[in-house]
Write a structure and sequence with these properties.
Layout lengths: L23 H6 L1 E4 L6 E6 H4 L10 E5 L5 E4 L2 H8 L7 H10 L1
Antiparallel strand pairs: 1-2, 2-3, 3-4
């Protein structure tokens, strides 16, 4: 611990950025994949990365439809992963496309 009460950074020899200069820590906390159901890009991200409102202590993770910009907050990463598998349950843009295609 440093003199100001904060934990001192630990140097374990692991790089903090990858070859492109992107944070390795953030890369581990964010996942973007193409959804099989809709063909859209869906991201799972921590609330810290999304700059979530600090007042909402329940929202620790977000599921985001990158194609339509809709998102939904979750208390756990597992919930975010579950919702990422089915954007037709929460993304208005995906729902509209599915209804037009039916």
């Amino acid at each position: 611990m440093t003199g100001d009460g904060f934990l001192a950074p630990v140097d374990n020899g692991a790089p903090s950025v990858d070859s492109r200069g992107q944070s390795v820590i953030l890369a581990r906390m964010t996942t973007t994949r193409r959804n099989r159901q809709t063909g859209t890009q869906v991201t799972i991200a921590s609330a810290w990365e999304c700059c979530a409102d600090e007042q909402d202590s329940e929202a620790r993770w977000f599921t985001i439809c990158e194609d339509h910009g809709d998102n939904i907050a979750h208390a756990t990463k597992r919930q975010a992963q579950w919702f990422a598998a089915s954007p037709l349950d929460w993304c208005g843009g995906c729902i509209e496309i599915a209804e037009v295609g039916s």
